[in-house]
Amino acid sequence: MTETPQEYGPLGPGATPVKDPLKALSGVLAGTLVLESITIFLALTVILQIDSGRYWTPLNWGTVVALGAAHFLLAFVQRRPWGLKAVMVLQVISFIAGFFVHWSLMFIVGMFIMVWWSVLTLRTDIAERMKRGMLVTQHLGTGEPSDDDK
């Protein structure tokens, strides 16, 4: 079995970045969860107003409040190794709950699932680029000083 050589960028593998971009991304994840929890809480007004409050049952509003609170609380554990997995599980649970509560909740969660897909795609891209030495921050201060620096 032959191993293919690691493909690096034109400047080589580079150094470890001073600030880990994957750790910095946890702030984006937490912010997204807070925005999603606010949006889910706003779905309470939709449930109250639709069909003269026909969907305003203790089970429905309790489900929406629990989902909004869970999203908000998960924003505080994004630096933990299991934080992202918990968010993905919560997205599936929220989408299924939206099917039973009201289609508008399912639509809200579906829109945020697309946001999460794009954030995870970005995270994967950053990790791959870091592995190949293609992040700018991996090469800052590693080259020869220019004439301006002398």
From TrEMBL:
Query: Which Pfam family is one of this chain's hits?
Result: DUF4233
Span-the-membrane segments of this chain are 24-47, 59-77, 89-122
Q: Which UniProt keywords apply?
A: Membrane, Transmembrane, Transmembrane helix
Matches recorded under InterPro entries: DUF4233 (IPR025327)
**Which domain of life does the protein's organism represent?**
Bacteria
Q: What is this protein called?
A: Membrane protein
